[in-house]
């Protein structure tokens, strides 16, 4: 190896220990490259980070804390994975009713005639004729719509089950298995 020449020695002595300040906004540029705004954002990620921080700050073993989080998520998923919504509109003739109630009956019979039913839920029919039953398990159901007292529909139409039947034994059964059914109910004229 050769000895450095005098110019190189002078250069090394002059600039040793010298460090130029970084340019303005350089750390922001680096931070944006290292942590893009889109990664790790969102409500679920924030929830996960907060739960993880709580687990570490409360002295929980990280493995036990992670296992508890996984079990909690699994429990919530299993609890709500087999629930359905049944929704639709109620009609009096060609127009939607503006007031009333919808009744949901669960059918326990395996064969016709239907005689073992239980009322499980009642919801209001809104001003646009819409109703919705939430959190419904797989099974067989009947829906009946009753027009509201004082409404125009109560004068000319009678309470009816799905598919324009007023008699429980003739009503069509709605089977809920994989999808959320949308059932429009047309009331029978008087």
Give the topology, please.
Elements (H helix, E strand, L loop, with lengths): L5 H10 L10 H9 L8 H15 L4 H20 L2 E9 L2 E2 L3 E8 L9 E9 L4 E7 L2 E9 L4 H5 E2 L1 E2 L12 E3 L8 E2 L1 E2 L1
Considering the protein shown, what is the CATH homologous superfamily of the largest domain? Answer: Immunoglobulins
Number of strands: 11
Approximate shape? elongated
**Uncertain runs:** none
Strand content: 25-35%
Mean pLDDT: 80
Supply the CATH class of the largest domain. Answer: Mainly Beta
Structural class: alpha+beta
Gyration radius from CA atoms, angstroms: 34 Å
How many domain units? 2
CATH level-3 fold name of the largest domain: Immunoglobulin-like
Question: What is the helix content?
Answer: 25-40%
Order of helices and strands: HHHHEEEEEEHEEEEE
Return the CATH architecture of the largest domain: Sandwich
- Helix count from the secondary structure assignment: 5
Describe this structure in words.
This protein is α+β, with helices and mostly antiparallel strands. It has 2 domains: about 80 residues, no CATH class; about 110 residues, Immunoglobulin-like. It has 5 helices and 11 strands, in the order H-H-H-H-E-E-E-E-E-E-H-E-E-E-E-E. Strands 3, 4, 6, 8 and 9 form a 5-stranded antiparallel sheet that branches. Strands 1, 2, 5 and 10 form a 4-stranded mixed sheet that branches. Strand 1 and strand 2 form a beta hairpin. Helix 3 runs antiparallel to helix 4. The longest helix has 20 residues. The model has no long low-confidence stretch (mean pLDDT about 80).
